[in-house]
Design a protein that fits this description.
disordered C terminus; alpha+beta; 5-stranded antiparallel beta sheet; 4-stranded antiparallel beta sheet; 215 residues
């Protein structure tokens, strides 16, 4: 199902948001046989905010008009924000910002994404991403962790897993590609979002060698 469009509706309080969410979910219930998967609208909420995910801008705008009418009838104050998903940037952008169409535009959006991820890592004081090497034994993991530390790369060793922080996804993917060739045979290497609790135990510098990978 295509869900490239998102309508965010901000209400006055959680109770109003819950009421709107319930009304919307009743309206777009899967039992409505007239709707195809492409036509379906997915509704979720988070506190006073309600999110409607649709396949087209027309669907999102029609949803906004319907909600605005309902809010007027019920006396609800609501704010609306229509966004479009940009797959290269991997983030929601203003609905009127066009998607990149050329290789140069896509490359520029990717550079902006990497720069933002690195800035987020620096501001947070811990990396946004991590590479996990799941070894077959604790001994293999300990040997790999020691070797990486010897190169000046900060790691966390937990039993048969070795975790390495990276300030952005491109750096993490580059490191993962390298470790797939260097890790003990049978190891599994994956890129994941960072679990902050791990790094609260061991301070991490955003200016480490990992932050410079990925171009």
């Amino acid at each position: 199902m295509n869900d490239d469009w998102r309508l965010r509706i901000t209400l006055e309080d959680n109770e109003t948001a819950d009421a709107l969410t319930s009304r919307l979910r009743d309206h777009v219930a899967p039992a409505d046989a007239s709707r195809t998967m492409h036509d379906r609208i997915v509704v979720s909420s988070d506190g006073p905010e309600v999110f409607c995910y649709t396949g087209t801008r027309e669907q999102a705008e029609a949803t906004q008009r319907a909600v605005a009418q309902l809010a007027g009838d019920e006396g609800w104050a609501a704010r609306y924000e229509l966004m479009h998903w940009h797959p290269t940037a991997e983030q929601w952008e203003d609905a009127d910002l066009p998607l990149p169409e050329t290789d140069a535009q896509r490359a520029d959006e990717l550079r902006q994404r990497i720069a933002q991820e690195r800035a987020d890592s620096e501001r947070q004081g811990y990396p946004d991403f991590e590479v996990r090497v799941q070894c077959r034994s604790r001994g293999e993991a300990a040997e790999l962790a020691e070797r990486l530390r010897g190169e000046g790369i900060p790691v966390v060793h937990r039993w048969s897993a070795v975790l390495v922080g990276a300030s952005d996804e491109a750096s993490a993917q580059e490191l993962a590609d390298r470790l797939r060739g260097e890790a003990p045979a049978g190891s599994r290497v994956t890129v994941e979002g960072n679990l902050r609790a791990i790094y609260e135990e061991k301070p991490w510098s955003p200016f480490s060698v990992l932050g410079g990978m990925g171009g």
